[in-house]
Write a structure and sequence with these properties.
The protein is mainly α. It is 65% helix and 10% strand. The longest helix has 18 residues. The protein is elongated, with a radius of gyration of 18 Å.
């Protein structure tokens, strides 16, 4: 299976539009993203070149579609971030986020549930 390419912050906004609905034309993507049309076309060209998007020609338009799921790209980006910033170790990252970010009791409960489920799977 191919690995998703590195996607810039601005390119993520294009990908999110296409994960919500596809295939779409550049005009459709521009109107949903709020970018200028030429900016959207520039990002679309980059994403096609990187292999993140595919397209089909439909008359005078191109219909773009993602070649990777949102989950695949999130997983790849998360791993890259974890490796770059926390040396690949999950514990320091989670500790940092829990200690430095505002986290609600509901979010804490969800995290506990996830950790408990993980612990049950390992035993």
């Amino acid at each position: 299976m191919k690995t998703p390419p590195k996607i810039s912050e601005s390119e993520w906004s294009i990908m999110r539009v296409l994960w919500d609905e596809n295939p779409l034309t550049a005009n459709d993507i521009q109107s949903r993203s709020g970018m200028h049309l030429q900016t959207a076309k520039t990002y679309l060209g980059r994403l096609v070149k990187k292999g993140a998007l595919g397209f089909n020609k439909a008359g005078r338009s191109y219909l773009y579609r993602p070649l990777f799921t949102e989950s695949e790209c999130q997983k790849h980006e998360s791993r890259s971030f974890l490796d770059r910033v926390f040396g690949g170790s999950l514990q320091p990252m989670l500790s940092h986020l829990v200690e430095e970010e505002a986290i609600s009791d509901e979010e804490v409960a969800k995290l506990r549930k996830i950790l408990n489920q993980r612990k049950r799977k390992q035993t």
